[in-house]
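Query structure, 334 tokens:
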């Protein structure tokens, strides 16, 4: 009797384990729901900047669209240069960067590059063009870039691409500010409001939060470039294009403002898998209405505008572009 009960017990145990084992094998074979989502951080900029705002929006869109596959977090950083350095060093996978920073990084001339051209950064998705925006208080005597001589000028975070490029441009143009103020754009706008900074420069697509918040309490003047200054900057720096910031972009922009512009891009590490780069780019492009709810500048976030990259794009992105019938030039193929 005992032997019969023992045999029955073994049969029950085998029959119970068999389907469970099959379920485990099926789950493993299908990469099942038990697999943890991949975690990626997106390097943005200081609080108050468009990168910071848009980075949070993109992370939310990706998390909502792909909750089983990924978890994206938006990280406050020092901006383009900091993001590229982190990607190159393996401390971040995705980040925002302007084409000026990408140019300097690819040439190895950026301070963070230490003379070595970056090798791991790849183009992911184009975002929007931004205007060089120079502003001061309306009662200031600064009416042109040449009036920056002897003044305190805000150039954003120290070491950022714009800071280095414009210091170089000022030297070539014979413009000698009394000092350069380096801090985030929100802090710089506050310093302009308090008279600690005479004029500030940034690249943005209007409306830029730090400026609109400043205009709530102060009247501003927006400073345009002369035709010669536009030509000099565009000829000297290949990432700049002569442009016009439209009248009405801000309350103080009562007429069109002649300036230069460059592109803002979302970039990634070459270590990102082809499948992940493809999925991220595809999802961002296919949620354009959601992007526009984040910031109206993202109307420029289209597959066609990928051709404005000045570094090679990720192979996973190139695959997606080819599926859309876009011919990718050899200069953008790694």
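Result returned for the query:
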């Amino acid at each position: 009797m005992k032997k019969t009960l023992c045999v029955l017990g073994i049969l029950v145990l085998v029959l119970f384990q068999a389907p469970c084992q099959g379920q485990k094998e099926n789950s493993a074979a299908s990469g099942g729901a038990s697999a943890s989502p991949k975690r990626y951080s997106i390097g943005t900029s200081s609080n108050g900047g468009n990168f910071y705002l848009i980075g949070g929006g993109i992370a939310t869109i990706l998390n909502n669209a792909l909750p089983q596959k990924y978890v994206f977090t938006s990280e406050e950083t020092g901006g383009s240069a900091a993001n590229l350095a982190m990607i190159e060093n393996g401390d971040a996978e995705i980040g925002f960067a302007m084409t000026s920073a990408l140019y300097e990084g690819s040439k190895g001339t950026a301070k963070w590059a230490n003379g070595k051209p970056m090798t791991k950064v790849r183009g992911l998705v184009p975002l929007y063009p931004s205007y060089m925006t120079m502003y001061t208080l309306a009662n200031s005597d600064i009416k042109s870039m040449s009036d920056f001589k002897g003044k305190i000028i805000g150039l954003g975070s120290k070491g950022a691409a714009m800071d280095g490029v414009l210091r170089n441009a000022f030297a070539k143009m014979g413009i000698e500010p009394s000092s350069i103020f380096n801090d985030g754009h929100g802090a710089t706008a506050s310093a302009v409001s308090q008279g600690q900074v005479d004029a500030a420069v940034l690249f943005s697509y209007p409306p830029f939060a730090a400026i609109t918040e400043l205009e709530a309490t102060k009247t501003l003047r927006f400073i345009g470039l002369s035709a010669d200054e536009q030509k000099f900057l565009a000829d000297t720096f290949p990432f700049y294009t002569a442009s016009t910031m439209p009248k009405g972009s801000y309350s103080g922009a009562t007429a069109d403002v002649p300036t230069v512009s460059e592109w803002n891009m979302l970039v990634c590490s070459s270590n990102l898998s082809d499948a992940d780069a493809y999925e991220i780019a595809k999802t961002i492009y296919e949620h354009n209405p959601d992007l526009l709810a984040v910031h109206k500048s993202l109307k420029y976030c289209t597959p066609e505008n990928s051709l404005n990259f000045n570094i090679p794009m990720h192979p996973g992105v190139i695959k997606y572009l080819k599926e859309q019938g876009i011919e990718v030039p050899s200069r953008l193929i790694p």
